[in-house]
Structure formats: structure tokens, C-alpha cells
Design goal:
Helix 10 packs across helix 11. This protein has a domain of 191 residues: ABC transporter involved in vitamin B12 uptake, BtuC, CATH 1.10.3470.10. The chain is globular. Helices cover 84% and strands 0% of the residues. The chain has 278 residues and is an all-alpha fold.
């Protein structure tokens, strides 16, 4: 009897689009939080923008070749990551210049490919700003299944990745294969962007990576604590953003980012008050 009641409750939860949205958003926050910490530590915000912009090209190719959109976005993001690593070794341009070149190029190519596909109706606003309220049970399985793989791999490479973040030279001196670790990190970033695209959209993915981690940094005294706090802030932002979206009839993806921004602004208040007392 108890088992039947549990099943009925779970079915009612998953039948409700708002509950699925919250569960999916929290699942993304659990993965984006720890990775966002490394984005901040390594000052890779612009790299996150580049990968998120490449997601639109992944969407265009998925529609063109009738592929799964998440898999296509992941593949394109990985390809752009590898392209960046290759260009950094061969080109005479700085990393910022290369990131700018790739970010705007892949976004433009994606938009042009979509424009040529006149036979396909594309919800461009949904891809750009997310469509979290349309999350399905399959999407939830993809988010939590893919998220579990990403978190497991991140835990496995946490120490060598952190060592390479602190000092690339010292990490190499300790025998850490920094190139391999960095490549795995880039692949994990691509995976998160592919999964998070439906939550906040192509243009706002980097915000979900950076803002919760930046907020958590103000309350943390060690890397692991910061990662946990980033997950908590991200989950709170998802809940607050969706509640605000439901209350004020605003777009869900941008509302989540605004909620995350409010959390960051609130995190600044105690420090500013402390300075006034001094």
C-alpha cells in the first residue's frame, strides 16, 4: 500500500510541468556549481561564452541532419574546444582574440544555417533563452544521468585539476598530465552546456556557471566548500527564478539568472556594512 502511494505521488510530481522544471533546474545547478568554480579560478568566463555560442551551431546541425539536439550540441562544443587548443599552439593570436573569433563565428554560422532551413520551424527564442517549462521526463533522465557522469569524472580529476589550476608548472613537476586533465575538463564543460541549454538557453548558460560560484566564493574558506555552496546558490536561484516567473509571468530562463544575480548582490551586503563600521 505504501509503495503504491509513493508511486502515485511520484507520478503526480512528474506530471506537473512546474515540478519537472524545478527538478531539472536543480539537476543542472548540481553540475554547473562545481564546474563554475573552476571557470572562476581559471578565469575562463569568455571560454564558457564561446562554448555556449557554439551550442546554436549544434542545434542547427541537429535539425539539418535530424540528430538528437543534446548530442549534437555536445559534439560541436567538444569540436570547438579541440579547435581552440589547436589554434592556441599554432596561431600567433592571444587566447582572448581566439575566443572572440570562435565565439562570434560559430554563433553567426549557426544563425545562417538556421536561416537557410526554411522548411523547419525553429523556436529561436527558446534556444537563446531556454524553455525550462517544457522539460520532459526524458530530459530529466538525461540531465541526471549525464550530470552523474560529469560529477563522477570531476571528482576523479579534482585534485590534479586543482593543482594545474594553482600552478601549471608545479603540477607538471609532480607528474600530473596537465594536457589530459585540461582536455577532460573541457569535455565536461561541453557536457554541462549541452544539458543546460534547455534550462537557460544559449545566451545565459555562462551566467548559470559563473554567478552561483561567484556568490559562493564570498562565503567559502576552501575549494570543496565553495563547490558545495555554489550548488546550493544555484538550486536556490532555480527555485526563486521559477517562482518569480510563475508569479510575474516573466521568461523562466532569464528569471533564474536574475535570481542568481540577486543572490550575488545580497552576498555583498555584509561586507559593505562591515566597511562602514570601520
Amino acid at each position: 500500500m505504501g509503495m503504491m502511494v509513493t508511486v502515485v505521488v511520484l507520478m503526480s510530481i512528474f506530471d506537473d510541468f512546474f515540478s519537472r522544471a524545478i527538478i531539472g533546474g536543480i539537476g543542472v545547478a548540481m553540475v554547473a556549481g562545481p564546474l563554475g568554480c573552476f571557470v572562476i579560478w581559471r578565469r575562463l568566463a569568455y571560454f564558457g561564452d564561446t562554448l555556449s555560442h557554439s551550442a546554436l551551431l549544434g542545434v542547427a546541425l541537429a535539425l539539418l541532419f535530424e540528430m538528437n539536439i543534446t548530442i549534437s550540441v555536445f559534439a560541436v562544443s567538444v569540436a570547438v574546444s579541440l579547435m581552440l587548443l589547436s589554434l592556441q599552439k599554432k596561431a600567433m593570436l592571444s587566447s582572448d582574440a581566439l575566443l572572440g573569433l570562435l565565439a562570434h563565428s560559430v554563433l553567426a554560422v549557426g544563425l545562417v544555417v538556421l536561416a537557410f532551413m526554411t522548411w523547419v520551424r525553429v523556436d529561436l527564442m527558446g534556444f537563446l533563452f531556454g524553455d525550462i517549462l517544457s522539460i520532459t521526463i526524458f530530459d530529466l533522465a538525461l540531465i541526471y544521468g549525464g550530470g552523474a557522469v560529469v560529477v563522477a569524472l570531476l571528482i576523479k580529476i579534482w585534485r590534479p585539476l586543482f593543482a594545474a589550476t594553482v600552478s601549471h608548472e608545479l603540477a607538471m613537476a609532480e607528474g600530473i598530465k596537465t594536457d589530459v586533465v585540461n582536455l577532460i575538463f573541457l569535455v565536461l564543460m561541453a557536457g554541462v552546456i549541452a544539458v543546460a541549454m534547455k534550462i537557460v538557453g544559449v545566451l545565459l548558460i555562462t551566467a548559470l556557471l559563473i554567478i552561483p560560484a561567484a556568490t559562493a566564493r564570498r562565503f567559502s574558506n576552501c575549494p570543496e566548500h565553495m563547490a558545495i555552496m555554489a550548488v546550493a546558490v544555484g538550486a536556490a536561484s532555480v527555485w526563486l527564478g521559477l517562482r518569480g516567473s510563475l508569479e510575474f509571468d516573466t521568461p523562466a530562463g532569464p528569471s533564474i539568472v536574475v535570481a542568481a544575480l540577486l543572490c550575488f548582490v545580497i552576498s555583498l551586503i555584509p561586507i559593505s556594512m562591515r566597511h562602514r563600521k570601520q
